[in-house]
Amino acid sequence: MTDGLRLQVELFGLALARARRGTPVRAGLGASDDLVVRALRHAPLAGATLAAVTGAVIWGTALMLPQAAAVVLGLAIALALTEGRALLGFGRMVDTLVAGGSARLDQRRTPGRGPEGAGMLAVGLALALQVALLVALAPAQAIAALLAAGAFGGMARVHVLATTLGARRQGMRARVFDVASDCYRVGLVETLTALLPLALVGAAAVVGAATGAVVAGQLARSTMVRRYGGYTREGLAWVQITAELGALVGIMAVL
Q1: pTM of the model
Q2: pLDDT for the residue numbered 77
């Protein structure tokens, strides 16, 4: 049992490392395909953990600064921790959706390229929407909303990888889903756990967050699948950010 718990802690560390570009993986835990697949189950917990750091910054700085400044600082810390990895992928996905034709395929094949034009505008609008929604909430409510949104974003990744095939898979690999057998169940439990602080705000907030995240995430997923026939790396970030924003909008709609 101790070995099993230690493995889960190490898998969570790997999930957190993958959520944060540049975070070193614990020594002795190689990022093999098997470990990466098994670590996916902790994506909701990793998302909630990063959101908790953002929430702690907001709570601490709100004691000295206006809430708007505290929210901006908290989101800036989150971007620094993750290097904006998900938002950049979100922006690149918007570019590919707008480009069409061969330009769309060319952008998918240049992973080092950042978002341009419509993608940068989408990233700016996403950040502005996050700030506006979080400023409208009390600090405690904003922290609970961040935890829920982070968990829903991670769960959106789990759902896509568990239900959608890769867009560029070939042969037998095209029929393989990138999840472990218990990945969906564990991810769902972690998501529900991250919703507990939001439940203190009210049952309506939980329902609003879940409804917003599911509706927005599914719309983003269906758009991606309709265009590409499966998921892409940028598409995962697109679904994650859309689900997070959907959760925040859902919370605001009922409060």
Answers
A1: 0.81
A2: 87
